[in-house]
Amino acid sequence: MADDSKKRLLFGEMCVKQGLLTDDKVEIALKEQQTGKTRIGETLVNLGFISSEDMLKTLSSQTGIKYLQFSEFPKVLLENISVSIKFMKQYKAVPIGKENGVIKVAMADPLDLYAVNALQLFFNSDILIYLSSAKDIAEAIEKYFGGNVQMTSIMEGMREEAGTIEAGGDEDVHHLRDMALEEPIIQLVNMLITHAVEGRASDIHIEPFENKLRVRYRIDGVLVEAESFPKRLQSAVISRVKIMSKLNIAERRLPQDGRIKLRVAGRDIDLRVATIPTLYGESVVMRILDKSGVLANLEDLGFPAETLNQYKNLIEMPYGMILVTGPTGSGKTTTLYASLNRINSSDRKIITIEDPVEYEIEGINQIQVKPKIGLTFAAGLRHIVRQDPDIIMIGEIRDRETAEIAIHSALTGHLVFSTLHTNDAPGAITRLLDMNIEAFLIASSLVGVLAQRLVRVICPKCKRPFTNKIFDETNLPDVTFTTYHGEGCDGCRNIGYVGRTGIFELMTVNDQIKKLVTEKVSADAVRQKAITQGMQTLRESGLSKIKSGITTLEEIIRVTQAESL
């Protein structure tokens, strides 16, 4: 016990000498620390007094153990190990190599004598300990020993003949089909899809490069590398996906689109598949649509209370056009579905025309566009208005014809919902004017515009107070509140975020805004008028999420224009 106290004091003194801490903060940490359970370094990090990296570098100086980051790990870690993944995760240790009979091991806590002795027994060899962060070790375990263990065993069972096929060459179609129907390839592709669904991914990217086939998942709006396969598997894997989506496996020069319907982990999943030829073969993207997903309520999307009440009033109007704007992947369709779900009742007829139909809503007539047979948004809309609807939802306004029919429908007693790709709410007016829509028609039909983005939510398990130096580089007022970030843990796959929420900018089109629209003033002028009338901007909505400890400044900057900060 006395030795532990000396170590804690020595560590604190080293931090003070290096200018990382003051004596009073060391005293606070020593009082806060639970003896025998948390080491002084962890306590200092948890209190936000020092960064995890500074703690590790100081510990490296104290113990003489070399500090390694994940980027410094070997590209291929030690194979055929007898240590279980459970042990590695529990004791935050991972074998990273072997030299002259000595096993190299990276550990987050090299002072854990039980783990060190256990590793020596496992390997029956001397071990050389390196110091690394728990986050880097977890990333190494996941990348080299986690999901890959099962996939590696599958790949080992594949026939070497796959290597005889060159991507982009004149392959025999029957040979391609035979390879794609082999059991290991079927298992491999199924596993890729299952991992994506279980990991809450929205898209799967299969990308060919000169020497490998890379797979990435888009999780919470950000691409995360999942696997890399040998180049020899490229033709078989891509052919398997094309067979599943009923595409022509012989056609590799032109883009193709298809769909896959699967049941994964008891859930009905639709995959929208798109291929495109690249320099090293066909690149494939699969958009995951969870048909069995529960429709979100407006209250669950992250609306501020005042904005939510204003938006609820808009969607209860008898007629007019409501637009939801934002870039691809900003949650526009989810907001529209939640809106329709709220106002759906037996005394209203609701018809939608979408591409694709992502959720099926009971009691609503939903139409899937089919451009190949002439069923476009504009063509479908012409017939929808003859079906005596009360409410119409258009997946996206892409051209002047669609915009004109939508506005005409709003002016003739229908409530119309649709989406546009603009950066902010006032930008929707400029976009419609660019489509050569008359200003007086826009002013007469438009009742509200909602701009939105999705930001990642800080993981509640590893959420810690955090001093963000980026605030000093922005035009935001002085920060007088506590900010947080996620340090990374098993619950968030060491990313620091789990799930997403929305930030919103709602512009209601009142008489003053209508007047500006008819005068064709700039979007900036409309924006300033809306702000003076109480519109909360995307920046302000994001700042309130930071104040509430929901997200980080980095997220707000990532999803909004940096210059607005």
What does this protein look like?
The protein is an alpha/beta fold and 565 residues long. It is 38% helix and 23% strand. It has helices at 2-17, 23-32, 40-46, 52-63, 85-91, 113-123, 134-156, 173-180, 183-198, 234-244, 305-315, 332-343, 377-384, 400-411, 427-434, 439-445, 511-518, 523-532, 538-547, 553-559, and strands at 93-99, 102-107, 127-131, 201-208, 212-219, 222-230, 256-264, 267-278, 281-290, 320-325, 350-354, 365-368, 391-394, 415-420, 446-458, 463-465, 484-486, 497-508. The strands form four sheets. It has a seven-stranded mixed sheet, sandwiched between helices. A six-stranded antiparallel sheet has the order 6-5-4-9-8-7, covered by helices on one side. Strands 1-2-3 form a three-stranded mixed sheet. Helix 9 crosses helix 10 (234-244), helix 16 (439-445) runs antiparallel to helix 17 (511-518) and helix 17 runs antiparallel to helix 18 (523-532).
Question: Average pLDDT value?
Answer: 83
Q: How many strand elements?
A: 18
Helical amount among residues, as a percent range? 25-40%
Strand content: 15-25%
Structural class category: alpha/beta
How are the strands of the largest sheet arranged? 12-11-13-14-10-15-18
Q: pLDDT under 50 segments (min length 5)? A: 159-170
Shape: flat
Radius of gyration: 28 Å
